[in-house]
Specification:
The chain is mainly α. It is built from 26 helices and twelve strands.
Length: about 725
C-alpha cells in the first residue's frame, strides 16, 4: 500500500510541476483540462488510500454521534462509554447492544444539555470515534489530518498558478480582507460561527458590488440589501453568551472531582425512582460497587468547597446524593442569544454595517495576475508607439485642434454644472446617512439597556443563591455549638459542664431553638418527604426527647440579667419568641440573632468557672483538685480525745491566724489566700476612691443640706 501511495504522490507532483511551468500557454486547452482532471483523480485516490484500516484521529461532534449511534460497531460504543465516564463506568461490557445504546444516548443528551447548539455540532467539543461503516468503503484514517493538510496546500498552489496564467475578466476581492471582515462581524455580535461559514457569501456580495453586475444582472440596492440581511441573520441566530458565569470555575472543579471519583451507594430504596435518577445524572457522577461511600465523599467536598455548597447538616447519604444532583442542576451553564429581544433590529443594523464595510477602503481588490501584468506591458509598448505616431500628425491636425478646443470648452461648462449637481446630491445623501446613524445609535443604546437588565436579573438570582449558602453555613455552626452546649448540660464532666447557676438558663435557650427537621417519613413507602405531613424523622424525634430534658432542667429559670450582659436581653427575648419556628425555615437575620445569643451564653459559661486575678490556677475546679491532692498527702496522725485533744486542737488550729491556717493547706492554700487578700485590697481601695470622689462632690455639706424640703435644687 505504501508503494502505491508513493507512486500516486510522485505522479501528482509531476502534474503540478507541468502546470506551474506552463505560464505562457504552451499547452493546448484540451491538454490543460486533461491534466487538471487527472490531478483531481489523484487527490481522490490518495485520500482513499490513507484512510484504509486506520484508527480515528479526529473528533466527531456529539450531535453527529447521537444521530448515528445505532450504526457504530460494538467496540466503538464501548470506546464511547469509556470516554464519557472517563473510565469510571463499570459493567458496560455486560449490557446488551440496545441497553448500551440507550445508556449512551442518556449520557450524550446530558453532555449536550450543558452546551449551546453550535458547541454540540463542533468537532472541538466532540469525542474520538471511527466513522460509522459504509457498505463497500472504509473511512478509518491512518494520518489523515496531516495528509489532507498537504493536499489542500497543493490544491491551493495549483489553483493560484492556474489563475496567474489567465487574464482577469471580473474584479475580485482579497481573501485576507474578506476573512478579516468576517472575524470582525462574528466577534462584534458574539456569534459562534466560523470565519469560513460566512466568508464565501461576503466575497460573492463584495464582488457583485465591485463589478456592478452578476451573470448579466445589473447591480440593485434591493438585491445587495437582501444578501446582506441573509448573512446578518446567520450571524445573529448563532450568537450565544454565558449569562451565569459567576460560578463557572467552581462548577468545573466539582465536575472534575466526580470525573475522578466513583461513589458507592447501597440504600437505593431511599430515593424514589432510583433507576431514572441514575440515568438523569449519567455523565455527572458514577455509582459503583467499589466506589467511595457517599457520606465520605460528601465530607471531603464540604472540606474542599465549604458549607455554602455542601452543608454539613445534611447527614443521610440519600439526602447528600440528592443535594449533589440539585447542585449540578443549579450551577449548569446557561447560554442565551443576546439579540433575542430585538432580533429584527439587530439583523438590520448588522446588514447595514456589512454593506458599509464592503464599499469602504478596508476591502481591497485582488492584485493583477501574471497574465494581467504581461498584457499591461504590451499595452504600454503599443501606447508608446501610438504616441510617436501621433506626434507626427500634430502639425497636420493643428487646425482641427482649435475646433476641438471650442467644443471642449462647452463640455467643461457642462461638466461644471454636473459637478455642482453631484455635490448637492452628496450633501443630501450625507444627511440621510447621519439620520440613519443616529437611529442606529439609539437602537444600540436600547439593546445595551436590555442586555444590562438581563445581567441584573441573573446577578439578583446569584445574590439569592449566596444568601441561601450563608443561611446553610450559619445553620451548620449553630447546630454544632448547640450540640456542644447540650453535651455539657446533659452529660457533664469535670472539664466540660455548665455551672449550676447557669444550667436552667442554658436549658431555656436550647429549648427555645426548634431543631425539628423539615422532612417527614411517608408511613406507606418509608420515603423522606420535604414539608410533608407524615411521621417524624429520627432527627425530629431526637429533638423532641432533648426538648423534654431541657424543660425538666428549666424549672428554676430566673432573671436573664443574672446570667449574661443586660444588652443581650433583647436577643434572648427574640430567641424565645422564635420557639415555634423550625431552624430549617429561619432567614439570615433570625439565624444571626440565635448565633449571637449562643456565643454570648458560651462566653458566660466559659467565664463562670474562671478564677479572677493572676492565680496559678485558672479555674475553680483546678484549685479544688489541688487542695484535695495536697490534703490527701498529709500524714495522718492520732487524734486524742478529752482534755489533751482539746488543748491540741486549740494550739494547732484555733490559735492560728488565717494566713497560717491557709499556709498549712500547701501551695494551693497560699494561692487561695493571696486571691482573697487581693480582692480585699481592691475592695478597700475602691471604697476609699468612692469616699474621696463623694467628698469632692458634696464638700462640707451635711445630709440635711442634701435632703428634705430645704435642700437646694442643683442642675448637673
Amino acid at each position: 500500500m505504501e508503494a502505491r501511495l508513493d507512486d500516486l504522490r510522485e505522479e501528482r507532483d509531476d502534474i503540478i510541476e507541468k502546470l506551474n511551468d506552463d505560464i505562457f500557454g504552451e499547452l493546448s486547452e484540451a491538454e490543460h483540462k486533461q491534466l487538471e482532471n487527472r490531478l483531481a483523480k489523484l487527490y481522490h485516490d490518495i485520500d482513499v488510500l490513507v484512510v484504509e484500516e486506520g484508527d480515528a484521529t479526529l473528533k466527531t461532534p456529539l450531535r453527529a454521534i447521537r444521530d448515528n449511534l445505532s450504526k457504530y460497531r460494538r467496540s466503538d460504543l464501548e470506546s464511547l462509554a469509556e470516554q464519557i465516564s472517563d473510565g469510571n463506568w463499570d459493567g458496560y461490557e455486560e449490557l446488551s447492544r440496545l441497553e448500551l445504546e440507550d445508556a449512551l444516548g442518556e449520557g450524550l443528551d446530558n453532555l449536550m444539555a450543558e452546551m449551546n447548539v453550535l458547541e454540540a455540532q463542533a468537532s472541538k467539543f466532540g469525542l474520538y470515534v471511527r466513522p460509522a461503516p459504509v457498505e463497500g468503503y472504509s473511512r478509518d484514517p491512518e494520518s489523515i489530518k496531516e495528509l489532507r493538510k498537504q493536499n489542500e496546500a497543493l490544491r491551493e498552489k495549483v489553483s493560484y498558478w492556474n489563475g496567474q496564467t489567465k487574464r482577469t475578466e471580473r474584479a475580485t476581492l482579497r481573501k485576507a480582507d474578506i476573512d478579516k471582515l468576517a472575524r470582525t462581524v462574528i466577534k462584534s455580535y458574539e456569534s459562534e460561527l466560523e470565519v469560513s461559514d460566512i466568508s464565501a457569501e461576503l466575497k460573492t456580495l463584495g464582488e457583485y458590488i465591485v463589478n456592478g453586475e452578476e451573470n448579466g444582472n445589473e447591480l440593485t440596492f434591493s438585491e445587495v440589501k437582501s444578501r446582506a440581511v441573509d448573512i446578518a441573520r446567520d450571524v445573529m441566530q448563532n450568537a450565544y453568551i454565558l449569562v451565569n458565569n459567576g460560578e463557572a470555575d467552581t462548577y468545573r472543579s466539582i465536575k472534575a472531582y466526580f470525573r475522578c471519583t466513583k461513589l458507592a451507594f447501597n440504600d437505593k430504596g431511599d430515593i424514589a425512582d432510583y433507576n431514572d435518577f441514575r440515568k438523569r445524572n449519567f455523565g455527572r457522577f458514577t455509582i459503583s460497587r467499589d466506589g467511595l461511600p457517599v457520606d465520605v465523599a460528601y465530607q471531603e467536598l464540604t472540606e474542599m468547597y465549604g458549607e455554602s455548597y455542601f452543608p454539613s447538616d445534611i447527614t443521610h447519604p440519600a439526602d447528600q446524593l440528592l443535594h449533589i444532583a440539585e447542585l449540578f442542576d443549579s450551577m449548569r451553564p446557561i447560554y442565551e442569544n443576546p439579540h433575542s429581544y430585538y432580533m429584527a433590529e439587530a439583523i438590520e443594523y448588522c446588514a447595514n454595517e456589512i454593506i458599509d464595510e464592503l464599499i469602504g477602503e478596508g476591502i481591497r481588490q485582488s492584485p493583477p495576475t501574471f497574465a494581467d501584468r504581461y498584457a499591461a506591458k504590451l499595452d504600454k509598448a503599443k501606447s508608446e508607439t501610438a504616441t510617436a505616431k501621433q506626434a507626427t500628425k500634430d502639425a497636420v491636425s493643428a487646425g482641427r485642434e482649435a475646433e476641438k478646443s471650442a467644443f471642449l470648452s462647452g463640455q467643461m461648462r457642462q461638466g461644471t454644472k454636473m459637478a455642482k449637481e453631484m455635490r448637492l446630491a452628496k450633501e443630501q445623501s450625507d444627511k440621510r446617512i447621519a439620520a440613519a446613524k443616529q437611529a442606529i445609535e439609539k437602537e444600540r443604546a436600547r439593546r445595551e439597556e436590555q442586555v444590562s437588565g438581563l445581567k441584573e436579573h441573573y446577578r439578583t438570582k446569584e445574590a439569592k443563591a449566596r444568601e441561601g449558602r450563608h443561611e446553610r453555613a450559619l445553620r451548620s455552626k449553630i447546630m454544632k455549638h448547640i450540640k456542644e452546649l447540650s453535651a455539657k448540660l446533659l452529660k457533664p464532666s469535670d472539664k466540660n459542664h455548665i455551672p449550676e447557676s447557669l444550667r436552667s438558663h442554658v436549658a431555656a435557650l436550647l429549648n427555645a431553638i426548634n431543631l425539628e427537621s423539615r422532612y417527614t417519613i411517608d408511613p406507606e413507602t418509608g420515603a423522606r418527604i420535604r414539608n410533608g405531613n407524615g411521621d417524624p424523622t429520627k432527627r425530629t424525634e431526637a429533638f423532641n426527647e432533648l426538648r423534654l430534658q431541657y424543660r425538666n432542667i428549666e424549672d428554676g429559670r430566673g432573671d436573664y440579667s443574672l446570667v449574661i450582659d443586660p444588652d443581650l436581653m433583647d436577643n434572648l427575648d427574640a430567641v424565645v419568641g422564635m420557639k415555634d419556628i423550625k431552624i430549617a425555615d429561619m432567614n439570615v437575620e433570625q439565624l444571626i440573632t440565635i448565633w449571637q445569643t449562643i456565643r454570648a451564653i458560651e462566653a458566660s459559661v466559659a467565664s463562670a468557672n474562671t478564677m479572677l486575678g493572676q492565680s496559678r490556677y485558672e479555674t475553680i475546679s483546678e484549685m479544688a483538685d489541688a487542695l484535695r491532692q495536697e490534703y490527701d498527702g498529709f500524714k495522718t496522725k492520732q487524734n486524742h480525745s478529752g482534755f489533751i485533744g482539746g488543748v491540741e486542737k486549740f494550739i494547732s488550729i484555733e490559735m492560728l491566724k488565717p494566713v497560717d491556717y491557709m499556709h498549712r493547706l500547701g501551695r494551693a492554700g497560699d494561692a487561695l489566700w493571696q486571691e482573697l487578700r487581693t480582692a480585699q485590697d481592691s475592695y478597700v481601695k475602691r471604697i476609699a476612691e468612692a469616699e474621696r470622689d463623694m467628698k469632692a462632690v458634696i464638700g462640707n455639706a451635711t445630709m440635711r443640706d442634701w435632703g428634705g424640703k430645704k435642700a437646694p435644687i442643683t442642675t448637673f
